[in-house]
Amino acid sequence: AAGVIQSPRHLIKEKRETATLKCYPIPRHDTVYWYQQGPGQDPQFLISFYEKMQSDKGSIPDRFSAQQFSDYHSELNMSSLELGDSALYFCASSLIGGGLWYGYTFGSGTRLTVV
Amino acid sequence: DAKTTQPPSMDCAEGRAANLPCNHSTISGNEYVYWYRQIHSQGPQYIIHGLKNNETNEMASLIITEDRKSSTLILPHATLRDTAVYYCIAAGGYQKVTFGTGTKLQVIP
Fold it and tell me: Which phi and psi angles does B71 have, rounded to 5°?
């Protein structure tokens, strides 16, 4: 079965550079969620999109932005990178349709290292 | 989303059943109980979910109390590969899901 695809798997950037993380949800899933997980921490919600519209926003820095495209894939853009942005970034997708929620499926994550 | 409370860590002998408790006393009627686990730095893996009835699949069983204020995840025969952080999440709709601190399960040979 198709899973949530994240790319790249690993990314190394220097301080003040820009990074773009991509997430391809499970086919027909209409909702995408982004999470950040620092070393030894639990995943922290960043932002979510439902039917290409932002549906909720968490502790996402102003330097970060995200969007969901017409094919439902999503991109997380991170600018002016700081050392503290080094983390695992997970994307999850779900199907809301019909007012019900069928749970999340997570991708394998992108490990961002800022040096 | 309803807040959940889990013990921070548990040990379980290999081959024995691991019973992981979760309190979700503020769960609302349309919220499901989901269990995920995360094995070192991998993406959280879905285990099982339920609304009010007990559920069983090839990985685990989920026992939800009648008042739905707590639940227990049961891994019937724990193996070393079950060592992970287990997250209990109460959620419904498309609102953000908030991860708690989870239970770090250590399966001991």
Answer: -150, 165
AA identity, residue B27: I
Which residues is A112 bridged to in the sheet?
A11, A87
Residue A115: strand, helix, or coil: coil
pLDDT in tens, B5-23: 999 999 999 999 999 999 9
Phi, psi of A64 (to 5 degrees): -105, 145
Put simply, the answer to whether A45 touches B98 (Cβ < 8 Å) is yes
Q: Which residues contact residue A41 at a Cβ distance below 8 angstroms, ignoring those fewer than 6 apart?
A: none
Phi and psi at residue B81, to the nearest 5°: -70, -10
Coil, helix or strand at residue B43: coil
pLDDT digits (tens, 9 = 90+) for B25-53: 999 888 889 999 999 888 999 899 899 98
Closest-CA distance of chain A to residue B41, Å: 8
Q: Say yes or no to pLDDT of A99 above 70.
A: no
Cβ distance of A106 and B98 shorter than 8 Å? no
CA nearest to B97 within chain A: A45
What single letter denotes the amino acid at residue A92? A
Give me A12's structure tokens: 């190394």
Least Cα separation, residue A44 to chain B (angstroms): 7
Residue A79, min C-alpha distance to chain B (Å): 24
One-letter amino acid at B100 equals: G
Is residue B2's pLDDT more than 80? no
